[in-house]
Each structure stands twice: as C-alpha cells, then as structure tokens.
Fold these 2 entries.
Entry 1:
Amino acid sequence: MPLIRLDKFISERTEFTRSQIKSLAASGKISVDGITVKKSDTKIDTEKNTVSVNGQPISQNRFRYILLNKPAGFVCSTSDSDGTNVLSLIPPELRSKNLFPAGRLDKDSLGALLITDDGDLAHDLLSPKHHVPKIYIVKLARPFEINYINKFKKGMKLGNGEQCLPAEVRCVENCDKLAFVQICEGKYHQVKRMFAAVENHVESLMRISVGGLVLPEKLGVGECMELLHKDVENLFLPLDFEDFCAGYGAVFSAILINK
Ligand code: URA
C-alpha cells in the first residue's frame, strides 16, 4: 500500500499547486473517504483512499488520457493566444498540468484526438517506428475513382516529391464523394496532399480511429471523455480496415455529409 502525501497526490493529478492545496485543505475543501482533511501533508493510501477536492473525486491514475472529438476551428497546440486551443475544450475536472495533444489534426479537421500528460505513451504513439494506423473519413470535391486504391497501396508520391508509406483507401458505400483512408504516419497535411496528388480535393476530414481505438458514436463533436486503461491499451492494437469500412460507413458518413 503506497502511502504518499495528500498534496503530492493531488498536485500530480490536477492543476493545483502545493500552496493552493494547502489553502484548499485549510478551508475544508479536501476530503479523504468523505472525511474533511485540513492538513495537506496527511499521508494517504493511493490504492484504498478516495480523495475529493471541491466535492470532485480525483482519479487514482498517475497519468490522464482524454479522448476529444475535436471540432473544426481549434488548433492542436499548448499555447493559447486566442482561445482556440484544443486544451480549452477540456472541462476543469479533467484538467491536469502538462496535458498536451498527442498528435496533430489541422485547424479545420475534426475527430479523435488523444490529450494526455504521459510523454512516453505519446512518444510511442507518434513514433514512426510503431506505425500506429489512423483512419479518417473524408468528403471529396469530386467522385472517388477506383484507381486510388492501388495508388494509395503502392505508396503515394506527394506533389513536392515526398514519398508516403503504403496506405489504404475505400469509397464509402452509397456515397461516391466520401472515402475512408488509413495511414500509418503523420506528414504535414498528409491526407489532403494524398488526394491532391490524385487530382481530387478534401473538403472535410474527420479522424475516426487511432490504432484500435474508435471514436465512440456517443461522443459528440466538441465533447471529451477520460479513457479507461483498456481503451489506452487499444491504441496499440490493429484494426481490420475492410471490416471497419463495412461496419462504420453509415455511422460516420452522416456527420460529414452535412458539412
Ligand atoms: N491529414 C490531413 O491532411 N489533415 C489532418 O488534420 C490529418 C491528416
């Protein structure tokens, strides 16, 4: 049973500094198993005790993993000069120090974005070595052409000569201007540039899976949820692209079709 100081436990999991925690405790805002604790240096058992601040229980987990369904108009960065940072969408009870977006979606893109304070996990997720696949649904300006499938599979050359790894693309059933794309890397504006290289144009783009983690249908655009341990493990599991396209066409096309 790992005993640690209450202020250390809270400061590692929230935005509060140790001096703020001291004042919160002194003013009766902190409880352990429902009992008010006024001294912030009290030792607690992290496996057994439930700590609450301002009535909100604090997660036991050392790191926080949040899945955001990013809306268009927000940027994936940690600095916030004009209030359009994705971190501003995280509700206070899920915030902690050092959160950052693990991956990039363009300002006009939407969909699955992991926000975490676990630098090692983010590194593994983004490292080209791990080739974690990501699936997007895109709305195209012109109808999908069957020849895209081979061109993407072979590894596409972008307009500036940059070479892409092999990728998968399929038209969404019953809609020739919607397509699913799976890529295992993250070049700048990659999906948009891949379609530009086949003389099409991406009008809207939504990321719908990262590894084996699929954006839940119930998570609306602009909403976020804390991930459970098993969801975090899913990030590194593969998904079958064909099965995915067959199963999710109707679910995600409805969101893009009206954009
Ligand atoms: N590819 C793009 O072009 N844009 C994104 O936001 C993500 C992948």
Entry 2:
Amino acid sequence: MSTFPSFNGSECEEDDVEYNKMCDKHKHLLETLPKGGGWMEQHLYNYNGFWLNEMFLKANLLVHTYFKSEPTDIVLASFMKSGTTWLKALMFSTLNRDRYSFSNHYLHNNSPQSTIPFLEAVSYPMTDFTTFSTPRLFATHFARTLLPACMTSCKFVYVCRDPKDVLVSKWHFISKLRSKDLPPLSFDEAFELFCLGVSEFGPFWEHVLSYWRASLESPDKILFLRYEELKKQPEVVVRKLADFMGKPITMEEEKNGVVGEIINLCSFENLSNLEVNKKGVDKFGKLLEVEKKGFFRKGEIGDWKNYLSEEMKDRIDGITEQKFQGSGLIGFSE
Ligand code: PAP
C-alpha cells in the first residue's frame, strides 16, 4: 500500500499569526508559480528554480519559518533515488557504533528511514528537534539554494548518482505513489520530463551543482559523495564519513573490523532481506506513506541499460556534459 493524499493547502490555525501568514504565502505561490507536469500529482511548481509539489512547497516554507539549525547539525542531502536510504543507514550506524552491537543492532528491527528525519516531511506544528542528541542528523532532497541561510553553518553529506539510474529508479518508485486520479506515467513521458528538468526537487543537474558549488566554497562543510564510488569502495567512503562526522575510525576499530561490520550491516543484501524492511510502510509526516520495500529495488549501477535506448543515453549524457561544463564536476559515463 502506498498513499499520497492530496494536500489541503488552505488548512490554517486561526490563532497562529505566523502560520497563517505562511499559509497565505503558500496559497499565493500555488496560484502564481509556473507549473509543470507532476510525477506523483498533476502539477509541480517552479519555486526559485526548482520543481516542488504542493506538499513539499509547504514543507519548504515551514522549514524557513520554524526550523532552527545548530552548527553541529549534519544534513544528508541528495536528489531523490541517489542512495539516501543507504547513506541514512551508513551515517547512523557509523555515528552510533558505540551504542549498538553489530549482532543486535537497531537496524535489525527498524527501517533506515526511522534513523534520520527528512526536512521535507515536516508538518505543523513542527517536531521539537531540540530534544535530539548532538550532533542532530537530518536528511533533505531540497537543493542547497532552497534551504534557509541559517543552515550554511551545518555540515552536509551530499550523495549523487548517475542520472540515468536515478531516472529509472525514480520512475519505478513514483509509479507506485502516483495519484490514482491520473493515468500511469509512461517511461517515455518520465524521460522527457526528466530531461526538461521537470522532476520533484529537480532539475537534477542544478540540484547536484547547487551542492557541488557549495562544496567548492566550503570543502570542510560539505562531503560530496557518489553512489558509484560507494559501491566500488565502500570502506574508503565509510572512513571518510567517520572523519567528516567527527568520529574517525580508531586503530583498535580497524583491527576489530568495524568498517566491514558497518558495510555489511548497511549492504543492500542485508537491509533488503530484513523482515522489518519487507513489510509495512514508512510514514513521512502526516501526509505521505511509502511501502518500506519500495526503498529497495535492485541497488545496482547501470540498470538504465535495461530501459534507455542508445539515443536516450546520449541525450542524458549530453545534458550532463553541457550542464557540468566548467564546473570541475565530472560526468557519470562508465
Ligand atoms: P529516496 O530518494 O526515496 O530516499 P533513495 O534511497 O535515495 O530513495 O534511493 C533508492 C535507491 O537506492 C534504489 O535504487 P534502485 O531503484 O536503482 O534499485 C534502491 O534500491 C537503492 N538502495 C537502497 N538501499 C541500498 C543499499 N543499502 N545499497 C545500495 N543501494 C541501495
């Protein structure tokens, strides 16, 4: 089961002036922003250069109005379907490796989604994040430039992935969440929208560049990772993550094989075969429920080869080359 009920944009609290002002802004934006074809719902709205649906637009306004970041916060940022679930598990288990034994771990009985909350799943009234232990971990699919200025002081782990695999993964995922009032979204339609940049939280390329540029400006604040490097050299990435989060792997831990334990615990094979990730739903805020097994499909590099023609591949690679030109960021061609 997965549901995506339509969002009631006019829901307001009479006695909260700030919230009511925000609701009015949301309503006004929905009426005035440029619209594009939605994947889950009929429309996406172009807000400051990025495409959001009604619910995520409201979440963005909520974050700007109510979220108070701490300089010690660590934020996992990603475009949808780039490896967020994997990184949630890796960051949580790396940071909390003294707290749980690998033979009886929190992740054996709880989904990776429960470890790090998504900022775009916030609703009103916002959860009291001040009670979270330091460093607080958050996740987001919002582009860097859509986040409030106060978050400049936070650390970010950004994970990106070959857009061809992102597209395939996203199309599978969204097909299950798409409103039942709409006709199914064909792969060709999804491809076209993706290439035009019209895609939840996208355009993909501008999303990646928003974090890449920030990482060049503040390399100590943004750890820029790729799904593909994680697949090929997970031990290197886990050590980088541990260093970046301020908890380097000690010599003793190296001797005890802790890095390997973390990698095995968080592997696609292990997580996708756990009962807790096979049944039931993960809830995101009040409005979105997603089948847990929907976060685990194939977990491979290059599944796009089963979906994209040579011409489609060339078109996406061409866009990547053109968009990344001069940025110092290399593309994803194998
Ligand atoms: P989200 O944007 O909805 O949070 P996200 O976790 O970023 O999704 O991406 C899901 C993809 O990561 C899926 O890719 P696929 O459709 O190509 O298979 C999913 O299978 C993959 N994935 C999930 N967990 C892991 C893991 N532990 N190792 C490798 N890949 C994983």
